[in-house]
Amino acid sequence: MSKLNIVLFGPPGAGKGTQSAFLIQRYGLVHLSTGDLLRGEIKEETELGIAAKELMDRGDLVPDHIVIGMIRNKIEAHLDAQGFIFDGFPRTQAQAEALDEMLNAKSEPIVAMLALEVPEEELVKRLLGRGETSGRTDDSNESIIRNRIREYEKKTAPLRGYYQAQGKFKGIDGVGSLADITDRLVKAIG
Ligand code: ADP
Question: Which domains can be identified in the chain, with CATH numbers?
Fold first, then answer.
C-alpha cells in the first residue's frame, strides 16, 4: 500500500500540533514537527539549538539547510513508517522542493496538503493564551507573534500555490471545536 504522507499546513496557532496528535493515532503516522525538533535541540543545548534559538525567539525562520537536514535524518530513521505528517515543514519554496526530491526518490510522494485556515486575530488570541503556559518566548508577546504571522504570509503562504499546481491542496476551516476540525481533516483525507 502506498504511504500516507501528508503536509499539515497553516499559520502559527492554526492548530497543526493539536490536530497532528489525532491524525497520527488514527492513521498510524509518524509526526515530524520541525518546531518540536528545534526545541529539542535547544533543550539539549546543541550547537544547532544555540544557533536556532536566537532566530526562533524573534519569530524569524531558521535557515533552510538546517531544517532540511533534520527532516532528511528523520525520514531515513523511519523507513518502515506507514506515512508521515509534516507539521511546520515545509515553510519555504526551497524546503518544499527538497521534500519532494527526498520523497520522490523513494516513490512515496506527498498525497495531500491540508491547510488549516484561521483568521489573524484568532491566531494572536490563541498564541497569547498558549504563551501563558507554554513558556515559549515566541508566544510571549504580540509583536513577536505578529512577526511570525508576517514571516508566514511572506515566505510560507505562497506554498499553497506550489501544492495547488500539483493538485494536492485542500483548504480546511480551522475554527470550531477540536472534534469538528478533526472530522473535516479526516473527510479531506478520504
Ligand atoms: P508555530 O507554527 O506555532 O510558529 P513551530 O513550532 O512550528 O510553531 O515553529 C516555531 C519556530 O521554529 C518558527 O517561528 C521558526 O523560527 C522555527 N521553525 C520551525 N519550523 C521551521 C521551518 N520549517 N523552517 C524554518 N524555521 C522553522
Answer: 5-185 (3.40.50.300)
